[in-house]
Amino acid sequence: IYPHATAAAHDTGESSSRSSSPLRVPAAHHSHSQICWGPLPTHIARPTRSAALPPLHVPCVQTSDCTAEIQAALDRASHRTLYFTGAYVTTPLLLRANHTALHFAPGSVLLAKRGAFIGGADSLLTIQGAAWGQACNATFFCPVATNVTISGFGARFLMHRMDYTLPPYHPTENRMAVAVYGLVGLTIEGLTIEGAGGDGVYLGQVLNRDITISQVTIAKSFRNALTVGNVVRLRVFDTILTLTNGTAPQAGVDFESNQCYSLMQDIVFRNVSAIDNSGWGFGFTLGPEPSCRPWG
Question: Is 69 helix (H, G, I), strand (E, B) or coil?
Fold first, then answer.
């Protein structure tokens, strides 16, 4: 059994669908020369909520690069459920949609294409309601993407974290697996997210609201498993944040409310384990920069 830390908040009425029994996985060993990881645990599947409109099954004709087909489906995703079955090799993807669900069947993989992701902020999947610096109001809150569900019990999002430390890549901590900016209403459930070149899930500094992460395993990220930036109403349940290693802070979860306008309100963690990360399990970087006014 890993030595592990668990954060549990007071009961606020939300229910959890996974047992809170101890996690039993093989021990991992670290050294300066190599990192050895054991197999990751799996989550128990439950039915995915159906969308109102007919589903769209996402094909992949050219198996060496499915980007065109996936991005075309994401561009049509509003008010639909997209179904992914099998392995999908892709370059960075962007979702800007309303009332959509991405359903990944058991065994499905969204795999970062080797040799791609050269840009310092190239992420596997970016969900964008507002762009960085888009001054819609004082808190940069102007959502385009709303009510998105990503469900993948038995499915994986995979990146190649160690590739990005070698030429032709330039060092950066911003190659996220899932990056979220300015979104209202997001649920991520059931997925295993591995090998992010930055954070496994990044809830960015453009205000996000009503975010739920449930029964997710985030492993082997380069910077943090989960980063919480500018967020109001966040729920994280039955989730494992593990084996982060690469660049500081190397945390299970890092709360980074460190911009002049950042909010961090109404946040609940229940049955969340931070296991064998190279940095802290649960870390806090709170408060605005000294240059902010009127605080600084």
Answer: helix
State the number of CA atoms in the 13 A half-sphere of 221 facing the CB.
Answer: 38
DSSP output for 18-32: S--PPP-----EE-S
Given a cut of 90, is residue 192 above it in pLDDT? Answer: yes
pTM, two decimal places? 0.81
**Can you tell me whether residue 265 is helix, strand or coil?**
strand
Q: Which residues pair with 128 in a beta bridge?
A: 181
Q: Is the pLDDT of residue 21 over 60?
A: no
As a whole number of angstroms, the distance between CA 88 and CA 45 comes to 21
Write out the H or E segment, with its range, that includes residue 36: strand 35-36
- Name residue, tokens 């459920």: 81
SS3 of residue 163 by DSSP = helix
Q: How far apart (Å, rounded) are the C-alpha atoms in residues 61 and 71?
A: 13
Query: 293 vs 28, which has greater pLDDT?
Result: 293
Q: What pLDDT does residue 136 have? A: 47
User: DSSP strand E in 123-261: where?
Assistant: 125-128, 146-151, 156-158, 178-181, 184-189, 192-194, 199-203, 208-214, 217-219, 224-228, 231-242, 251-257
**What burial class does residue 84 get, using C-beta atoms within 10 Å of its C-beta: 0-12 exposed, 13-18 middle, 19+ buried?**
buried
Contacts of 31 (CB under 8 A, 6+ apart): none
- Interatomic CA distance for residues 251 and 284, integer angstroms: 10
Angle at 40 between CA 34 and CA 46, to 5 degrees: 160
Q: Are 219 and 192 within 8 A, CB to CB?
A: yes
Cα torsion through 145, 92, 84, 150, rounded to 10: -40
The first and second tokens of residue 278, run together, are 């190279």
pLDDT at 7 over 50: no
Cβ atoms within 10 A of the Cβ of 80, count?
19
